[in-house]
Amino acid sequence: QYLQKNAMNAIESKTEEKEHKQSHNGVNASSSISFMECVDPMTGSAIFSVAGPSIYDEVDGGARLLKWTTQQIQYCGVLCHPQHGSHIYPATIFTNHDIQTIYNFFSQIDVNELVKYGKQKVSENKYDSETGK
Length: 133
Fold this sequence. Notes:
This protein is an alpha+beta fold and about 130 residues long. The protein has helices at about 1-25, 60-65, 100-105, 110-125, and strands spanning about 35-40, 70-75, 75-80, 95. Residues about 20-30 have low confidence and may be disordered.
C-alpha cells in the first residue's frame, strides 16, 4: 500500500502538470490518457484495475523479455538476475509515462521507509512453518 499510494500520487501529480501544459499549448487535455498498472506477484492479476481472465507471470516475463535464466524449486519458478542471482524479487510496471517521469518517481522513494514497511508486514504474517499455512 505504501508504494501503491505513493506511485499513484506521483503519477497523478505528473499527469496534472502535463494536462495543464497541454491546455495552455492548445492541445485538448482530455485526449491524454495516463496509464499505470502493476502486477500482484502472488496472483498475477492487475493491482489498480479490474483484472481480466489472464494473469501475468513475473518469472516467465523476466525470462522471456529480459532473457534471464530461471531455476525451478519444487513448484516455484525463480528468476535469476545476471548480477544478483536469485536474491531479487521481480516486479513489473506497465505504463505509458516517459522514462524521465518513472526515473524521477523511483529516485524520490524513501528506501529506508519502504524497508521498514516491508519488515512490518512480514512480521504481521502469521505463517506456520510446520503446516505451510
